[in-house]
Amino acid sequence: MKIVEFMYPEYTNIYGESYNLEYLKRCNKDIRVIETHVGDTPKFITGEADMVYMGCMTEDKQEKTIELLMPYRNFIINAIQSGIIFVVTGNALEIFGTKIIGDEVMSDNKIDIRGLSIFDYQSVRHMKQMRHNSQYIGNFEGMLMLGHRSQYSYCYGEFNNYFIKIYRGIGMNPDTDREGVHVKNFFGTYSLGPYFIMNPPFTKYILRLLGLKDDLLFEKEIMEAYQYRLEELRRTI
Fold first, then answer.
1. Is the dihedral of CA 60, 63, 68, 69 positive or negative?
2. Model confidence over 46-103: pLDDT tens digits?
3. 3-state per-residue secondary structure call for the chain
4. This prediction's pTM
5. What is the structure's pLDDT at 107?
6. CB atoms near residue 88 (< 10 Å)
């Protein structure tokens, strides 16, 4: 049995990210999803989780999530180095950087939130500007990766350990074609929503990392949908 830990679902499920894990466990009966709620001790610190998942959250929940995880910072670093799988989507990846700076939407106050400093990048929010919405096509280890984003902030840094090389769309900010974070088995992306359903080749990759067969639920249909979406994005981006 492989244990997949869903971190703080009451915070990190605003774009239906929970269905990433619902789909994953329907692909293989040997996957068990457990939810770690606010106030619970994370299972990954005791070695009980084979994979950790965290999805997008509202901006006010980012600071609260950092406060919850800061006591476990060294455990997170050790878990990443030991090869535990992390999949982090949307603005959840921002909390793993050095800080989040910018403005607040309801006041003239400036924010400066200390991040977990797991990785060396910082995020800049522009809450008073129009939200950025776009889609991307990129490459990860020969796989074409699809994603869509809706965000007020961008990340800035060197991104030497990037996840996806973008060739249609933008990366961590409009001035780079490097998207996300990839260190060991840590995968972070700004993309939102049902990422595993959108990217079945990557879902197969994750199943193999878990040491399981890479058969997918409704594999023929989901691969056809992936190919259709890919062609549409190639035409429109």
1. positive
2. 899 999 999 999 999 999 999 999 999 999 999 999 999 999 999 999 999 999 998 7
3. CEEEEEECCCCCCCCCCHHHHHHHHHHCCCEEEEEECCCCCCHHHHCCCCEEEECCCCHHHHHHHHHHHHHHHHHHHHHHHCCCEEEEEHHHHHHHCCEEEEECCCCCCEEEEECCCCCCEEEEECCCCCCEEEEEEEEECCEEEEEEEEECEEEEECCCCCCEEEEECCCCCCCCCEECEEECCEEEECCCCCHHHHCHHHHHHHHHHCCCCCCCCCHHHHHHHHHHHHHHHHHHC
4. 0.96
5. 53
6. 25
Q: What domains sit in the chain, N to C, each tagged with a CATH number?
A: 2-236 (3.40.50.880)
List pLDDT tens digits, range 112-161.
999 999 999 999 998 888 899 999 999 999 999 999 999 999 999 999 99
29, 76 contact by CB (below 8 A): no
Asked if pLDDT for residue 215 goes beyond 90, the answer is yes
Amino acid at 107: S
